[in-house]
């Protein structure tokens, strides 16, 4: 078996186990259930925002140390933080401990960047498109299994909402143990770089084909920090000096922010739509499974439908879907709107990633650009949380009206950008004819 295939399979199994969290489709119902004494307002204002802000702050730190620690320790930390999150949810009841769980959840989500970028330090750059697709599909597989299992277990009354957390906890424990089997990364992309012969770049030599060496180029800690900083700056400047990279990165960040904001508070909206009907059966798990399956289909279609103007009508459809999911006081309509929005998000994010990758002259910096774009998207989501929830204190329906409006704004700006780009290109062609 080729070395890169073995590494990818090990990493993908970790990613699948990590995403097996059947408790998540029903987390709001669980937190507002008989096991705790908190209100919807507290969950909206005092709990979920803590996770958002923690994720943003910790993502900066994790982003900086992941390459320095050479990925594997951070991946193991991801598993350990997942264990801690669900242990706290299972065996504590106070609001304060719930906020602690959100800080831990911020660590858990921030360390995902190590899982997504580890592969760039372990395989040759020519394999990047394949392994990126495999790791994303592994995560989607875990989410799909989570949705299906949670729906079946609750529908047939095999488990209650609290018991689902035991499966999630077990999956995180298995993922953590499996992470120890990941091959260590002897060389980083920016820190602990290998010394190579003059005229040969680091990306010229497939890492999985490298024979073991006694060590990397031994330099002082300060020297490594200085060289890594310069290299990161050069890669970022080289990438973001390209207008297309800036445009698609902006789309990536905004689409990510709107999706995560929508997903985080969606269960609160569903609970409000259902009103006091506690007898109504919940289909949150089935909805998450369908959204994941259609999302995978959307990601697949992104490799065929690559027209640069498509994100505009897609964002418009997402805006309409979220508006209808909020305005029509019907849970089935709301479920459908959420599925449509999520499916189109996966299309957009996959298309944007492919467009960005195609513009990068040095493929080894794709992980860096991905990390920066994710950081910007998380920052935008934090701003939305601060303004809509903690400053304006909007009710849940109003929050989603704003989100649907933001989708329509994104569609308008992207369409305007495409029109401007078209006229600039046409003007340039006309000038070249003279």
Question: What would you call the structural class?
Answer: mainly alpha
Radius of gyration: 22 Å
Count all strands and give the number: 0
Principal-axis shape = globular
SSE order, as H and E? HHHHHHHHHHHHHHH
Question: Which percent band covers the strand fraction?
Answer: under 5%
The overall average pLDDT, rounded, is: 89
What is the CA–CA distance across the termini? 58 Å
Query: Stretches where pLDDT falls below 50 for ≥5 residues?
Result: 196-217
Main sheet: strands, sense, barrel: none
Number of helices: 15
Helix percent band: over 70%
Features of the shown structure:
434 residues; mainly alpha
Structural notes for this entry:
The chain has 434 residues and is mainly alpha-helical. Helices cover 72% and strands 0% of the residues. It has helices spanning 3-18, 27-31, 40-65, 72-91, 95-110, 112-118, 128-155, 164-179, 221-240, 243-274, 284-301, 311-327, 331-359, 366-391, 396-432. The model is unreliable at 196-217 (pLDDT under 50).
Write the layout of secondary structure elements.
Layout: H1 3-18, H2 27-31, H3 40-65, H4 72-91, H5 95-110, H6 112-118, H7 128-155, H8 164-179, H9 221-240, H10 243-274, H11 284-301, H12 311-327, H13 331-359, H14 366-391, H15 396-432
Give a quick precis of the structure.
The protein is an all-alpha fold and about 425 residues long.
